[in-house]
Design goal:
Belongs to the peptidase S13 family. One of its GO terms (molecular function) is serine-type D-Ala-D-Ala carboxypeptidase activity. With 537 residues, the chain is an alpha/beta fold. Helices cover 39% and strands 13% of the residues. The chain is built from 13 helices and eleven strands. α6 links the parallel β4 and β5. The two termini are 52 Å apart. The N terminus is likely disordered.
Amino acid sequence: MVVPELRAWRAARPHVVRIKRTVQPRVTRVAQAVQPRVTRAAQSVRPHVVRAAQAVRPRSVKFTTPRLTAVAATAGLALAAGAVAFAGPWDSSGQRTAERDWAASREGEGGADHGRSSDTSPTAPKPAPSAASVLTGLGGSTVSVPAPTQKALTSTLDRLLGDPALGGRRTAVVVDVATGKRLYGKGADDAQTPASTTKIATAVAALSAAGADHRIETRAVLEPGTKEVVLVGGGDPTLTARKEAAGWASLRTLADETATALKARHLNQVTLSYDTSLYTGPALHPIGTNPNLAPVSALMVDEARTDDSASGPVTRAADPAADAAGKFAGLLEAKGIKTTTPGLSKATNGSQSLASVSSPPLSALIERMLTNSDNDIAEGMARQVALATGRPADFDGGAAAIDAELKKLGLPLSGAHFTDGSGLNRDDRLTADLLTALLVKAGDPAHPELRPILTGLPVAGFTGTLSDRYADDASGTGLVRAKTGTLTGVNTLAGTVVDADGRLLAFAFLASDTTDPSAAQSALDRTASALAGCGCR
C-alpha cells in the first residue's frame, strides 16, 4: 500500500530541509564539545552516588514512577544547562560568542560585495555577497547594467524549451522590464490556453478599473417599519466567520455591531433575510461543481469552504449565500437576538444601516489571489471590474470588462479571449506576448497602482503555489517570482526573475499537450532558473 504524502508536509518540506542543513552542523559541534565534559562529570559523581546508595540501602527505599521522573527531569535540566553554559557565553545580540569566534578562525571564504572596514580582522571570512532582490530593476534602476542579448538567450532557452516534457506546443517570451524591450520570442503571438496565468490579466484590470485602495463592503440593514434585517452581500470573497479574522472583514464583527444596533432599538427578535442581487447570471462556473471554486455569489464567508482551510481544493457549500446567512443568524443569536430561518430577499433604497464591515484594500486581495492562485477571489475580481465599468456582474460581463480595461491600457490583445477571471475555463486564450506586457505594465513607474501584481507573485521555493517547487533547484530559489498555471495537458509559468547581473526580466512560458504535469513543471522551473543564472551576453 502506498501512503500519499500529506499536503502540509509537501508544502513544508523545502523549508525543513533548509533548516536541517543549517542546524545539523551546529548540533554536532555542540554535542562533540559537551561530551568530554559530561564524561568527566559522570566519573567525578560516580563515587558519591555509590556512597549515597550504600547509606540508604537499609531503608529499602522504593523509587516510584513520579520520583524517577522527577530525578530524570532534574538531571536532564542540569545537563541542558551545562550544555548551554559550555556553548556560551552569549553576547547582547543573542549570538553565541564561541560560534562567532569559531567562524572568524576559519579560512576566509565568500564574496566581496561588502567592503572591509578598518577594524575587520584579516583572519575573518570574506563577506558574503548580497542576494539579488526579486524586485530589482523596477523604475529603471538597472538600466546601466547591460541586458542579456537575444543571441545568448536563444542559445540558452531553445535547448531548455525543447524538452519533450513540455508537450507538442510551447511558446515563450522574455522582456527587459526596465526598457520593455523583447529579448527572446518563440511563438510570441500564438494564443494558447493560459490556465491560471489568466489571473495576471484579471489583476491588472481590477486594479486599473476599481483602484488599489478600493474596499468591498458587506452590510446589515433594517427595513423601515418592519423587523426585517437584511444581510447585503457586496461581493467580498475574503469575508470570514472565523474567530481569527487576520485582517480580513469579519462576519463576527458585523454580527456584534448589528446586535448592538438592534438592542438600541429595543429589538431582540427579527426576520432575517439576505441579498445577493449585486451579481447576476449563473453562479456555477462552466466547469460545473468543482472543489477549486465555489458557486460565485455576492455573499459568502470563507469561500464557502466546508473545512478550516484557506486555500486549495476542498468541498464547498452548495449555496454560499445561504451558508453565510445561516452563520450570521447563529452569531446574532449568540448575542441575544433571535432570528427566523434566513430567506432570500432584496434590500430597499429606504433601508436603514445597522452595521457594515469592509475588506482590506483591493491590493491585498490581489496579492492573496496571485500567491495562492485563488479562483474564488479571481472570479470576484472579474465582477468588480464589471461593476466598475458599468457591465453586468456575471461571467460574460466580467470577461468583457477585463478585455475592455486591458485595451484602454494599450496592451497587445491580438488573439486573446477571456471567458472568466480565474483561468479555469479551457476556452480562455492568451499569448506569451500579452502576459509579459502585463508584467512590464505592472513595473511601469507610471502605474504604481499595479505594483501589487509583482509583489503578489509566488516566490520560488518559499510562498504560495511555488512553495513546494524549486526544492532541488537552488539557482532559482528566491529569485524567481511567477504565477503558475495548471490544467490537464496545460502547464504555464509567467513572472519575473533577476538575472546574474541584477537585471529584472519578465517572462512567460506556455506549454500545451503535456502528459506529465510534474515533469512539465520541472522543465518550466529549470527554464526560469536558467534566466536567474544567466548574464547571457
